[in-house]
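Exercise 7. Given the encoded structure of a 636-residue chain, write a plausible sequence.
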């Protein structure tokens, strides 16, 4: 009462005498359910009613703190119980703030019933940057309308944003042409607020590495808010073209992190989910591109900082990696996981493909326990044989993912395999056992040896490693040993001129990328033993054509007769590949050349190479030229 009487006396005295009465009121602190303010002072001229300057040493609202703010009001009214500022402007009261445009606003407040009405109309987003330090590096653009109203334990918020654009300094977060609305209402409850909100984003584009999202998002949510905790009890999010998800969240405001959360999706489109959400994340981890179609359902629960439950379901899905190595069709799956509880998944595949090899339908027996997944006893039809997985185990530890595999291929017809791989027809059958493959630190490693029976001999692959197997730049490293292979079967298979005999081969330090060799050290030589050793004139012409364009004149004139052949005692060929150049070696040296084949008997012919440095790509191209176009031969 004394304050109001004193203020009334000053106003009356000023109006009658005409002198200026500068009034400054120090209000100390103001506490409201929606905000707190300290160091509040109001200065106005009692003789010029309607103009005032308000200063706030500190303002706390919505969990944010602002310091040294200055408000100027036109149409100002204040009598100790009521404050009106219908035409105000706000800025930071420092050198930086005074250089930037002020933030226009209107404000009305009553002490008795806690009434508050604050609004911003058509404000340029850049006007916020002097006030909110976190915005300065984002260079915001756009127009903003905001209305905040509180009365009698109830508060409403309406926010409308148009043509919003921004970008972080690092470029990892950015937005362009964004328009959205947010409408919320909150009512006071014990110790805090109970709230409901609706969000609609119809225009614009948002990027947060590695995800990029166009508009078409709606959300409705409700929960509670206290000084320490934000609870999202129920939220439903609809994403255009993908589907909808229902979620919950508990956010620790003091720690700035989620302590508990969970979600469950409705039936969603797998193609859009893979393209917009899953693939960007996989790409950021270095995995190749995957394509998907069909439908899926997911759910997860995170409690006290750890994942407790997860579920994934697939319905008539198709999955294929971008490299063309794996394709699965008609996938129906039910994959539950729970911490500390062993679970078993139900996964069925109608058909599939590994590279160019077709797979028949199969069921995947997947068992999970903690951070470990295991497949045992899988037999998938592969052509007329089977692809076997005796055991496949994947586990995650502090050092990352690691795993083991044992299995192989059983009873696959070589003629059918040759056709499937678009290779020349090969006789026999393929049975290959893989004793153990381990995955750790980004390397897929074969323990033991991979044995393959082909061309009436044996091939053993050992020290096999696949480096970065799920990346785009995967590299294949191995040593290969072949013993007692039938040269006749090999040359007939590839329609090369006939060579009879047997040979051994050693391939050391082989490294390939994209199925192209980067380096190796190879040696091919005649096998020990007593067997027919001969080559036809056609084979001789084919071999010489690898070293020069066209057929030598003497060979061109030689008649090809059935049964006519040259004998040899030894064949030897060596190549050390580095930087695209093959350093040639042979059975022995002769003058400036190396002997690749030493002839024997009558007639006799020896093959000598004089250029020891051979361009590898040119050599491969000539080999293809020699055998391409032959009847029944397809080389790719």
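Solution.
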């Amino acid at each position: 009462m004394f304050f109001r009487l004193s203020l009334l006396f000053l106003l009356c005295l000023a109006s009658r005498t005409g002198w200026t009465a500068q009034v400054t009121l120090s209000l100390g602190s103001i506490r409201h359910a929606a905000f707190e303010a300290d160091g509040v002072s109001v200065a106005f001229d009692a003789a010029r009613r309607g103009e005032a300057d308000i200063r706030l040493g500190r303002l706390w609202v919505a969990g944010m703190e602002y310091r040294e703010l200055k408000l100027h009001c036109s149409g100002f009214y204040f009598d100790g119980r009521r404050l009106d500022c219908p035409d105000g402007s706000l800025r930071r009261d420092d050198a930086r703030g005074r250089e930037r445009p002020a933030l226009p606003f209107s404000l009305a407040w009553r002490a008795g019933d806690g009434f508050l009405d604050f609004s911003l109309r058509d404000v340029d987003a850049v006007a916020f940057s002097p006030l909110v330090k976190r915005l300065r590096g984002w260079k915001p653009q756009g127009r903003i309308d905001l209305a905040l109203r509180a009365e009698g334990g109830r508060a409403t918020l309406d926010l409308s944003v148009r043509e919003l654009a921004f970008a972080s300094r690092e470029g990892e977060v950015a937005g362009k042409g964004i328009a959205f609305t947010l409408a919320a209402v909150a009512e006071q409850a014990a110790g805090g607020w109970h709230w409901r909100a609706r969000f609609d984003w119809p225009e614009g584009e948002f990027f947060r590495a590695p995800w990029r999202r166009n508009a078409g998002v709606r959300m409705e949510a409700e929960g509670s808010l206290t000084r320490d905790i934000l609870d999202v009890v129920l939220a439903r999010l609809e994403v255009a073209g993908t589907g909808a998800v229902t979620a919950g969240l508990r956010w620790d405001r003091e720690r700035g992190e989620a302590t508990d959360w969970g979600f469950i999706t409705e039936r969603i489109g797998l193609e859009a989910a893979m393209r917009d959400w899953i693939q960007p994340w996989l790409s950021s981890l270095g995995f190749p591109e995957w394509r998907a179609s069909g439908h899926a359902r997911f759910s997860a629960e995170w409690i006290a900082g750890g994942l407790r439950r997860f579920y994934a379901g697939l319905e008539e899905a198709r999955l294929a990696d971008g490299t063309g190595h794996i394709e699965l069709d008609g996938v129906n799956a039910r994959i539950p996981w729970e911490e500390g509880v062993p679970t078993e998944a139900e996964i069925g595949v109608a058909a599939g493909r590994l590279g160019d090899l077709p797979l028949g339908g199969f069921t995947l027996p997947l068992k999970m326990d903690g951070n470990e997944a295991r497949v045992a006893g899988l037999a998938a039809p592969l052509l007329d044989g089977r692809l076997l997985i005796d055991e496949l185990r994947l586990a995650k530890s502090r050092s990352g993912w690691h795993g083991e595999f044992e299995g192989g291929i059983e009873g696959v017809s070589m003629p059918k395999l040759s056709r499937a791989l678009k290779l020349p027809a090969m006789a026999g059958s393929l049975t290959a056992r893989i004793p153990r493959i381990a995955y750790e630190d980004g390397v897929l490693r074969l323990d033991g040896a991979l044995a393959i029976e082909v061309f009436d001999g044996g091939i053993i692959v050992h020290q096999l490693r696949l480096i970065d197997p799920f990346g785009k730049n995967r590299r294949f490293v191995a040593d290969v040993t072949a013993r007692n292979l039938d040269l006749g079967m090999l040359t007939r298979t590839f329609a090369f001129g006939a060579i009879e005999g047997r040979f051994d081969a050693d391939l050391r330090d082989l490294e390939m990328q994209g199925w192209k060799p980067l380096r190796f050290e190879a040696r091919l030589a005649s096998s020990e033993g007593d067997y027919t050793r001969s080559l036809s004139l056609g084979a001789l012409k084919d071999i010489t054509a690898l070293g020069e364009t066209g057929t030598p004149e003497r060979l061109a004139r030689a008649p090809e007769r059935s049964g006519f052949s040259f004998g040899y005692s030894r064949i030897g060929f060596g190549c050390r590949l580095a930087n695209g150049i093959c350093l040639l070696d042979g059975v022995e040296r002769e003058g400036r050349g190396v002997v690749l084949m030493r002839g024997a008997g009558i007639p006799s012919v020896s093959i000598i190479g004089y250029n020891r440095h051979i361009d590898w790509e040119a050599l491969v191209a000539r080999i293809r030229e020699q055998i391409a176009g032959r009847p029944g031969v397809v080389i790719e």
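Remark. The CA atoms of residues 228 and 267 lie 35 Å apart. Students should compare their own answers with the one above.
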